[in-house]
Predict the 3D structure of the following.
Amino acid sequence: MILIIGGAGQGKTDFAKTVLHQTELQSGAECPLPALMQASCITDYHLLVRRLMAEGKAPLAFTEQLLSQDPEVVVILNEIGCGIIPVDETERRWREETGRCGCLLAERAKAVVRLCCGIPTLLRGSL
C-alpha cells in the first residue's frame, strides 16, 4: 500500500496519476463501500472517514478491513489536523478519526509520500 498525504490542492492526485500511473481513481466521498475494497486508488480518504462516521460505522475498523482485503491500494489523504481546533465536537471527532486512520495507513504502508506545492517528499519506504 502507498499512502499519499498533503494539504488540499497540493498535487496528490496528479502525483498518483503521473508517477504511480493510477488511472482508475475512486473517491472516498462517494464510491460504494464494496467497490472501495477492490479499488486500485482511493482519493479523499478524509471524506470517506466523515462518511463512515455519518453512517455510524467505525473508520478504523473499515481501514483495517481495507488493508487486509486490498494490500496494494494507493490511498490519498488530505492533512486536516493542522491549524485551529474546531469548536464543533463532530468536526473534532472527524479530525481525530482521520488522524488515527492516517497513522494506521502510514504504519502499514510500503511507502508514504507527502506533497507540498506539488513537490513530493518520500517520508518512508520506496516507490
